Amino acid sequence: MAESILPRVTLIEHPLIRVRLSRLREKTTPSPEFRERLHEIAQLMVYEVTRGFETRPIQIETPICETTGHEPARPIVLVPILRAGLGMLTGVLAILPEASIGHIGMARDERTHLPEKYYLNVPPGIGDADVLLIDPMLATGQSAAAAVAQLKSEGATRIHFICLVSCPDGIAHLTSAHPDVAIYTAAIDEELDARAYIVPGLGDAGDRYFGTSG
Ligand code: URA
Q1: From 204, 207, 209, 210, mutation site for ligand 1 pocket: most ligand atoms within 8 A of C-beta
Q2: What percent of the chain has pLDDT over 90?
Q3: What is the pTM for the complete model shown?
């Protein structure tokens, strides 16, 4: 189901995800269905993303007797990259309701063409947490790498990047800038076009999710 491509890159392959992703790619899929399928894929991906998360034993009492249960060893913090990351956040949060949520906004500087942070708010204690940085599209990897750098400057040390569709350029940029960050993706597409859209991709994920495309 999950295949490790590079040491820190995991392609999450599953028929349930494959079929839903195909609906997202289809250009006639309307926003209401786009949202539902994206939420479902995000939920399915969480099982794989959290597979290595540690738990610690706790003493619990069933109606029958005392026994040993488990609780998460660390807090979990979800950080969507605005705005498309909000779409995946809903699905991830359905499985991890105990998580705290931060937000990061990245925009391209028209002069330098580099991503600039315009908003950052993260919960206290992010240094102890497993942090899931969320963005559906890993295209050039510039925004993702800049977002990781911002989270590290806030003290985050255990960062997992979760996306829906990636491409070789984005993976190469993020892994070379931050080799410690684990990347989880449901698809690795072929390439970027001249406008830095992923090919075949699914278009602008934020516009399709929020219904703001023309
Ligand atoms: N962002 C998107 O929404 N889609 C792409 O193809 C690339 C970046």
Answers
A1: 204
A2: 92
A3: 0.94
Q: Which of 21, 81, 137, 143 to mutate to test the pocket of ligand 1 (most atoms within 8 A of CB)?
A: 137
Residues with CB under 6 Å of ligand 1 are 84, 137, 139, 197-198, 201, 204-206
pLDDT tens for residues 179-196? Answer: 999 999 999 999 999 999
End-to-end CA distance of the chain: 37
What does the alpha-carbon distance between residue 90 and residue 147 come to, in Å, rounded to a whole number? 20
pLDDT recorded at residue 109: 77
CATH number of the 2-210 domain: 3.40.50.2020
Residue 45 is predicted with a pLDDT of 98
55 Cα to the center of ligand 1, angstroms: 35
Instruction: Give me the residue spans of the domains in the chain.
Output: 2-210
Mean pLDDT, the chain, integer: 95
The residue nearest atom 2 of ligand 1, judged by CA position, is 204
Is the predicted pLDDT of residue 4 greater than 70, yes or no?
no
Atom of ligand 1 nearest to the CA of 208: 3
Q: Rounded to whole angstroms, how far apart are CA atoms 46 and 141?
A: 21
Beta strands in the chain (DSSP E): 2-4, 9-12, 55-61, 66-72, 76-82, 100-101, 103-108, 115-121, 130-134, 137-138, 158-166, 182-188, 191-192, 198-199
